[in-house]
Amino acid sequence: MAQETDETIAEEKEAEVIEVKGYRGSLINSTIAKKDSQGFVDEVFADDIGKMPSQNLAESLSRIPGVKINREVTGEGQQISVRGLGPSFTKIALNGNSMAIASDGSLGSGNRNREIDLDIFPTELFSSLSVSKTAMAHQLEGGVSGFVNMRTARPFDPGSQTFKYSLEGAYGELRDAVSPRYSAIYTKKFDDTFGILVGVAGANTKSRVDGYEAVALFTDGCVAQWSNPEHTGSSCVDGSQGLNHFFWSPEATPDYAAANPGVNVGDAVDPVATSGLAADVLDTALLPYLGRPMFTYGSRDRVSGLVSLQFRPNDTMDGAIDIMYAKASKDFVRTEAMWWGRRNYLHQGAAIIPENLTVSDTGYVTSGTFYNSHIWVGSHDYQEDLDFISVMPSFSWQATDLLKVDMSASLTKSEFERDEPYVLYMSPGGTLQFENGDVPSFSFSEDPADPNIDWTWQQEYDQNQDGTISEDEKFGDMFRIQRNHRETETQGLHFDFAYGEAPEYSGFKFGLAWDKNTSNMTAFGGTAVFTDENVKNSDAYNNFSDYIGSSLVSDLGSGISGYSGYSGIAQVDWDRIRAATNYDSFEAIEVQGDQFGATVGDIEEEIFAIYIEANTETEIADRALRMNVGVRWVSTDQSVATSSSNTEASYRKMLPSLSLVYDLMEDVKVRASASRSLTRANPSDMFPNASWGGSGIETVNAGNPYLSPFEATNFDIGGEWYFSDLGYVGLTYFEKEVTGFTRSDSLIVSFENLGDYGIDIGNIGEDREQALLECGGPSQCTATVNTRNNIDGSTILSGFEAVWVQPLDIIVEGLGFNVSATSIRQDASDEDAIITGISDLSYNGTLFYENDVFQSRVTIYHQDGSASYYSNGKEVFSFDRTQIDFSASYNLPTDMDMTLTLDAYNLTNEPVGNWHEYEGIAFNAFYPGATYTLGLRGSF
């Protein structure tokens, strides 16, 4: 009886696989997959992936409940996170195998942990995406928050046409340019035993993003005073309460004197009186720290290819080899016009005079006039190259009626190069009007877009009033060397066995997995050497103004609500600067940290895991109950190194899991699951960048390669009501207790054990040898190691996910909608365990209509703002963001299968950005504009 039941279930499951036709068809397949799943799993299928206005796989995954998207400043999706935890806590797999990508994350940041950028993967080359939100024993460990499997297209996929293609042109309203996109997939089958699929997809994206940034927001208001008659330094008046990053001038500047008849340059000025504020208010008023309107301008080329060979010699064997290659390059300029309000010293002629300031109740300056302001321009010339390749052979063999064997191997390699030279130059002093809005507006008496306003490579100030600017009267950086190199590699070998007539329902699974993952990060600098040897000997140093040209944009901020500042920024001629300084021949110097202030190094992990699962089905009250119970044992050996030290660590973990599905009614399923999951510690916290904290042996500063992994205990309960082939409603409650968080800590360590933290105790120098002798020798002496350490605290994440898929054929044939929403709250036992980046509420919904020739969809995505990180003890939290997209297609009335498509992306020009402490105080904001894509798709 059991055998007959199992065979019937398997046959019914096979019969339910349908050929995808249109968005509605893809939703039906997603509904079937959801209904048949064990645990809490959501899937997106081929048509849904390929025919929505999704620029990459990250966008497609964002439609799944509980999945949040992290966006590049262009607005394009780049990384995903599941149920609140960040991208490093989600395990991303390609065809069930581990993968890594060497790309460096979004503009202005750097991937340092386990993030995977998905923006190089085009939707056209994938057949399905699956997100498991609770762990099962057969899944690769590494995702505390979830497991995502991306399945590439294969020759024997249902509905594979011989040839599919697309040609598109995407118009970006901000760049006012058309970006071409293309794809082509050829499939050939030979006698149903062998098939080959070859696909390619690419794009040349011409982009422009306008925005605003602040490095930080500090209290300021420090009134400067001369420390000696030679004007060689400045300091704050006694009693100042500010952080002393901005300086108010105590004497009249040229523009202030010009605006106030009877006042001469150098006359005494009381900045407290001119500001219109009380002294204590001025002293602590908040201004942006290097607040800067900015833009990026350039292009990105991306091409991805897929070759899949599939061999089915008989009904019991299925072999495949999937090879994917992706290459991406960026060539763009990022230019920022900073208001110089950082260490603007009086002796450099840079202190400012405030006039008629207004300050909010929260202490932020909301408007005012500032004399002797300078615009400090920074221009980056980005050149990026990324290569990725994966080779994944697999073989499935139904060895007997009861035993099935699956074998797979994998190799992924990725390499990334970023060259980011940075030139800085200074405007003359002038009067600036500041007004806060959605982003602050800066109006300057000089036009920053004008290349002819006496730009200088450094701030120049004639301190001794002799009419000549000497070398020691020039201040500030001119040129910074910033280069990064990253390499990643993953290797894997997996064996999976299933025993039973229908082992997914009644039987056993067991297997083993070996994986090896490496990541090598290198940073290069050499600014001081380059400045002395290349810059100061160049024509550009003596004639810098000749190397400044017109702004690349003439309508800066046109897409920013309420902005009324600069219309452009005078642009350094990068080709001429590179040539004049012989930049391309400079041998950069390897350094310990990158331009983001993060330590770089190498990490290698070798992982061995074994698992066993049991599936069974029984009846309770004449209703089916399915159960999956399993355990995964995993061993991890880690090696973490910087250029000067290397450490190793190992640990073993047991990860049990349990999932239940009960047919409460014929079309009502109730689910429950419990599991343990892990994510290995952040490499950025593990690098053993150890150094002595002084001339003695008392203190050592070090990373901690012995950090324990993040671990989570997960519980889910929920269910769905399937009221039609397409329609269902579902509700899930989840709870996740996460441990493994770290804090800065100090440990007392025996001198003999300091080698464990990367210190060479055999070569410490004469002074430390003497200190070691005085305290009693290696066996008696101890040192304080300042590092990061795991805390005992935990965070409990809990929340609800809801989904509703509803056909509306009763109103209009072909009409329908699908919506999903996720709410999350957290309860941290320790402030160091507070998780940033959690949106309290996120939702997305699609209203669709389709018939035989026409399809259309309107989609809305919303994420509440969330705490992103902290800047000088103040919370930085992201904008609430609601994006609206539109997609439509029309089957042309020809004998060929040809479809005209129209996509509109980010119709309302939603920005990507953060507030600083309070809503309305912009920390950064990037406005990418809307994109409209017209294309032609076809197949034959």
Automatic annotation (TrEMBL):
This is TonB-dependent receptor. Belongs to the TonB-dependent receptor family. SUPFAM superfamilies: Porins. Residues 34-137 form the TonB-dependent receptor plug domain. One of its GO terms (cellular component) is cell outer membrane. It is found in: Cell outer membrane. InterPro entries: Beta-barrel_TonB, Beta-barrel_TonB_sf, Plug_dom, Plug_dom_sf, TonB_rcpt_bac. Residues 441-907 form the TonB-dependent receptor-like beta-barrel domain. Keywords: Cell outer membrane, Membrane, TonB box. The keyword ATP-binding does not apply. It comes from Alteromonas confluentis. PANTHER family: PLUG DOMAIN-CONTAINING PROTEIN, TONB-DEPENDENT RECEPTOR-LIKE BETA-BARREL DOMAIN-CONTAINING PROTEIN.
